[in-house]
Amino acid sequence: MSILPLGAGDLTLAAGLVLLVAALSWRLRLGIAQAMLVAALRTTAQLLLIGLVLRALFAHASLGWVAAMALVMLLAAGHEVRARQRRRLAGAWGFGVGTASMFVSSFAVTVLALTALVGVEPWYEPRYAIPLLGMLLGNTMTGVALGLDRLTQSAWEQREVVEQRLVLGATRAEAIADARRESIRGGMIPIVNAMAAAGLVSLPGMMTGQILAGSPPVTAVQYQILIMFLIAGGTGLGTIAAVGLAARRLFDERHRLRLDRLAPVSARGR
Amino acid sequence: MDLVVEPGECVAIAGPSGAGKTLFLRAIADLDVHDGQVWLDGTERASVPGPLWRRRVGLLPAESRWWRDTVGEHFAASDPEGLARLGFGPEVLDWPVVRLSSGERQRLALLRLLANRADALLLDEPTANLDAESAARVEALLADYRKGRDAALLWVSHDAAQGRRVARRRYRMDAGRLLAADA
Prior knowledge:
- The complex is a heterodimer.
- By secondary structure, chain A is mainly α.
- Chain A is built from 9 helices and no strands.
- In chain A, α3 crosses α4 (92-118).
- Chain B is α/β, with parallel strands linked by helices.
- Chain B is built from 6 helices and 8 strands.
- Chain B starts with 9 loop residues before the first strand and ends with a strand.
- The interface between A and B is medium-sized, with 20 and 23 residues.
């Protein structure tokens, strides 16, 4: 059994739904019609493009090409983490902290899964490596972005509490401990919630896709459980690393709070 | 500008808002980046780790901040004598911070700072929210601390009469400059 291919007509019909909502948005003056159409066009173009890229990649399964693809995905995730923060670290740190943390956690977990758990030959086989890395990066990105946003925002809002603790002789780690703990928790809550709701409220996308493609449900479920655990590991490690690095960067070697190391808030911050 | 405070001495600084008094105290406590040099008993600021320096050079900010729910969680050990001198019973340690008045906060913040046994104190308007009687208690407590520990005090106050009561040497700060008070 294999998946029924979709024709151009099916996609056109589905696109009609988007147009309907866009028309309604325009009529109701929601101010989101244009953004929605642009996003729909982007999703079409980006996914068609990645379809072609993946086809080419699967045909030439060399480590170099897989690594290049992984690098592009990592940089895109790093850019997205940076864009999602209201008060980001200034300069290269704003991009580097999140990107480095995602690199360490997502790549380590993906390589572990490919070599030790899935056991595919060769281990960088793109049919496995790219989707796995994509799911890990996507979720780790959410955790890292939430954690960093929360940390910098807390440091900004609670600067007087942090400095009060410094004044009483606290080290930089003690002074920021509460905010750091809350930020890491904030970054990990989505995956904890996703694991708690999986199967009851939501059928995770990867499992749904495998079942649609004809896999036996039990095999699909086993893969989904594996993925959930990998995501939990990657997100947890990535968020802890990113928030830890950023919390350190907010202070200097004299244990002074250095909010001047945060970039000015941009009007485009989400 | 240059300022030396002897052990056991209290120096008062007055001056208009925005003159830089608070920034001056923050710089001495090593909270902001600056080029100045600060020495304590022959030890330069940079030769001591930041947290240790701030334990020895204690800053009392004009507005105290609290990060736990009850007063007692901010104190390592209870000090019934100090509490009593500022008009509190030992039960104050169980009070929720949110229910404290601004005057109570100010007095408790001072006790919290004194518990560090600093060699130098930087006091930013330590009695601004207090009535006359409480202010007198704070002045007496700080005088005893200064004499008992031979501590150096730098006392910022808008109140000229208080400046004359607590300090023999007095300065005015204006636009970042330190001038002798009678000049």
